């Protein structure tokens, strides 16, 4: 199979899996809180979202570990199977009216979000550096369709559930079971092939020279123990033979703690880890309080829905553009642009609340917030894919996604009390404070570059070869 055809098939399957998984996630999340409230009362309503977020966070590291040991397709397939089991548990809990079973089901259901997040990293595995960001962005873009289609399937799902005699609000989870099953089938068809190294001269010519950005993928020669990475063969699902069972001890995959420890010592990788967590926390804090702020100022539920839809479009619809920009100008520059957009969004949100400017300025703030999240998430993900050595790359990605979920959960928990104490202005001020660590880490990364600190050399790009079992 030719290299272009191989990657086209692989990306197509990842996009399909992410799209189907996104439909299941969005449809279920749309009614999850209502179902929890029906079984447990209003006091339990917030636990549904908390359980799903916790499930996503807890699953991220084990799924990454499974990917490092056995390959991406097994990891993604197992994740979707767990999410499908969660959807079945949710339906069962509604039938037997058991809130504890429902929360357990929602936690497993949340694993789908962890899987969808990891598909973006799978898109970057084993592809030339010059196209890595664009391929990651295509997989992220597929979430747009799922996010829009999922909630719109709630009503047909509810009608289907009634025809089958199921309790109210469980119908959408029937569609989620089907979506996750089809997503699992899609990722199980991901091709696996060994990767043969290409001479360094060819790799350099293919990747182009972006050394001024300091983010070209490969090895940080100044960091200890990394000079043996990106060498040898690598599988198409991004796992080198050294990370497979039976490999030499020196090439065994590192754990999440070791990966995070390495990233904290590496300025560019540290920026990727921190920016993903910070951007997500800022986005969650402002987004979940926007509907309450709008309702408090007499805006209709229909208008709230329009604003949130525009925000979601901002999060995903322009991902391919940010991917192209990251490939063209380097991920660090796109990361800086993402942080600038996040900062602009909280200024706009603060102004909308202070001036009581109505829905237009609030909508603008939410759109810019989504764009800032998209640029930050994509560029930071590319930084991790480009800088981490093979033995730490997948564990670092899993640990970073777990940290992102935990950061979002903490931001969500703090947002309500902050809104109650100081209004929407205070929420945006708090979001600006959360953004500060990313700004500081970015400044440190730029300073290290300017002082001749650690830079990232290029890997030897590879072409698919013989299949690995």
Automatic annotation (TrEMBL):
Record Gene3D superfamilies: MFS general substrate transporter like domains
Low complexity composition-biased segments: 240-252
One of the record's GO molecular function terms: transmembrane transporter activity
Membrane-crossing residue ranges in chain numbering: 12-35, 47-68, 80-109, 173-190, 268-289, 301-322, 334-355, 361-385, 406-424, 430-448
Principal localisation: membrane
Name this polypeptide is given: MFS transporter
Sequence segments annotated as region (Disordered): 202-252
Limits of the Major facilitator superfamily (MFS) profile domain: 10-449
GO cellular component labels: plasma membrane
Entry keyword annotation includes Repeat: no
InterPro entries recorded: MFS, MFS_dom, MFS_trans_sf
Keyword annotations of the record: Membrane, Transmembrane, Transmembrane helix
Topology of the protein relative to the lipid bilayer: Multi-pass membrane protein
Subcellular localization(s) per the UniProt record: Cell membrane
Species this chain originates from: Microbispora cellulosiformans
């Amino acid at each position: 199979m030719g290299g272009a055809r191989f990657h086209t098939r692989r990306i197509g399957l990842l996009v399909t899996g992410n799209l189907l998984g996104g439909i299941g996630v969005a449809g279920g999340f749309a009614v999850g809180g209502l179902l929890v409230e029906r079984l447990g009362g209003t006091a339990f309503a917030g636990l549904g979202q908390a359980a799903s977020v916790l499930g996503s966070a807890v699953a991220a590291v084990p799924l990454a570990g499974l990917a490092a040991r056995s390959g991406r397709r097994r990891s993604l397939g197992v994740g979707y199977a767990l999410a499908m089991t969660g959807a079945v548990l949710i339906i069962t809990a509604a039938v037997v009216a058991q809130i504890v079973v429902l929360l357990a089901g929602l936690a497993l259901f949340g694993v789908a979000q962890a899987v969808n997040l990891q598909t973006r990293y799978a898109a970057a595995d084993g592809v030339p550096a010059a196209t890595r960001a664009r391929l990651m962005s295509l997989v992220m873009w597929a979430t747009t369709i799922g996010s829009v289609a999922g909630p719109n399937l709630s009503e047909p799902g509810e009608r289907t559930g009634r025809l089958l005699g199921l309790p109210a609000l469980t119908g959408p989870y029937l569609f989620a079971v089907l979506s996750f099953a089809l997503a699992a089938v899609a990722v199980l068809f991901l091709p696996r092939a060994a990767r043969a190294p290409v001479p360094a001269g060819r790799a350099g010519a293919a990747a182009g020279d972006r050394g001024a950005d300091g983010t070209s993928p490969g090895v940080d020669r100044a960091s200890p123990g990394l000079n043996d990475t990106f060498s040898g063969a690598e599988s198409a699902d991004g796992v080198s033979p050294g990370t497979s069972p039976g490999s030499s001890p020196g090439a065994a995959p590192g754990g999440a703690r070791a990966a995070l420890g390495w990233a904290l010592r590496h300025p560019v990788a540290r920026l990727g880890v921190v920016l993903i967590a910070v951007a997500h926390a800022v986005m969650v804090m402002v987004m979940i309080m926007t509907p309450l702020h709008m309702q408090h100022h007499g805006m209709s539920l229909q208008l709230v829905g329009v604003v949130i839809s525009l925000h979601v479009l901002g999060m995903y619809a322009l991902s391919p553009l940010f991917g192209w920009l990251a490939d063209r100008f380097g991920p660090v520059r796109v990361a800086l642009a993402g942080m600038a957009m996040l900062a602009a969004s909280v200024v706009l949100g603060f102004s909308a609340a202070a001036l009581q400017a109505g829905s237009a300025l609030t909508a603008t703030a939410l759109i810019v917030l989504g764009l800032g999240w998209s640029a930050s998430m994509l560029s930071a993900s590319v930084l991790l894919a480009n800088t981490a050595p093979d033995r730490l790359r997948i564990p670092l990605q899993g640990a970073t996604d777990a940290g992102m979920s935990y950061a979002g959960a903490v931001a969500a928990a703090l947002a309500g009390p902050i809104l109650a104490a100081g209004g929407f202005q205070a929420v945006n001020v708090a979001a600006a404070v959360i953004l500060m660590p990313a700004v500081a880490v970015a400044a440190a990364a730029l300073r290290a570059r300017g002082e001749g600190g650690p830079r990232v050399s290029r890997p030897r790009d590879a072409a698919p070869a013989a299949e690995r079992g």
